[in-house]
Amino acid sequence: MSWQASDFEFRNRFWFIAAIFAVTFALYQVDHTNVTIALTLRILRWAHPEANVSAESANFDGTARLFFAGGTILLILAALIRSWATAYLKSGVVHDSEIHSELLVADGPYRHVRNPLYLGNILQALGIGLLASRLGFAFLTLANTIFMVRLILREEAGLLESQGKSYRRYFDAVPRLWPSLTACIPGSGARANWKDGVMGEMFFWIFAAGMAVFTVTLQSNHFLIALGIGFALYFLQNYLRMGRVA
Predict the structure, then answer these.
(1) DSSP 129-166
(2) Does residue 1 lie within any of the structural domains?
(3) CA–CA distance, 217 with 201 (Å, rounded to integer)
(4) DSSP 8-state code for residue 26
(5) Which in 16, 27, 97, 116 has the greatest CB count within 10 A?
(6) Are 212 and 128 in contact (CB under 8 A)?
(7) Is 240 domain-assigned?
């Protein structure tokens, strides 16, 4: 089997990613222990071997919040990276079901890493994975990363075919997924459309806000309420914007 994603996988990538997340949380039926709870208990028992540490311990909520705060930071970073990338690539291209190998963007985050959008997906999965079971977290991390790499290989093959030497030079200069702290190539002077970037990646910002609420409250229903409010506002503004256009 080729490591590249098929055209069918690329066109339906949203549904493949959704399926990975669905399976992740369905795995609670097999493994009932949340990965963050398991990690928190392990750390507290290591730090206090003489104590009878449980989820009701005095230090438990504070330690767990540190993990979820880290998850919130990962989700904010994912949303920021994807918004930055989309501000240069344009949301219509980012979310199109077809491969756009006729276009090579080498500005903004693309000067530091070749695939900032997929990097954002991986960071988001790591952050949301803290809400999953131990088995679910392992599955999400592995399955999501493999699928992202397959999508990357499919896009790179198309760009190498259509862009030839220009993309090869870019390919050789800029890392695939591990960002360089300094720009690897000079910019073209293109300007970012941050409004399009942020609005195009609103789903990522909504999940980051939901995780932040959960970190403060440690209540799963508050996380779901925050997501519901976020998506309701998102679809409402989309509806009002379309009405103004019409």
Answers:
(1) GGGSBHHHHHHHHHHHHHHHHHHHHHHHHHHHHHHTHH
(2) no
(3) 25
(4) H
(5) 116
(6) no
(7) yes
φ, ψ for residue 230 (rounded to 5)? Answer: -60, -45
What are the backbone dihedrals phi and psi of residue 158, each rounded to the nearest 5 degrees, phi first?
-65, -40
Specify whether the CB–CB gap between 175 and 48 falls below 8 A: no
* pTM higher than 0.70: yes
Asked if residue 98 is part of any domain, the answer here is yes
Domain presence at residue 114: yes
Contact 51, 177 (CB under 8 A): no
Distance CA 185, CA 45 (A): 48
DSSP assigned state of 49: T
Question: Would you give the DSSP letter of residue 110?
Answer: G
In 10 A of CB 145, how many CB atoms? Answer: 16
pLDDT, averaged in runs of 10, over the chain (246 residues) = 83 94 97 95 83 70 92 97 90 52 72 94 97 97 96 89 82 92 86 88 94 93 92 80 57
Q: Which amino acid is at 91?
A: S
| DSSP structural state of residue 59 | T
Integer angstrom CA distances of residue 18 from 53, 71, 101: 36, 19, 24
Q: How many domains does the chain have?
A: 1
Q: Look up residue 177 and give its two tokens.
A: 């997924």
Amino acid letter, 196: D
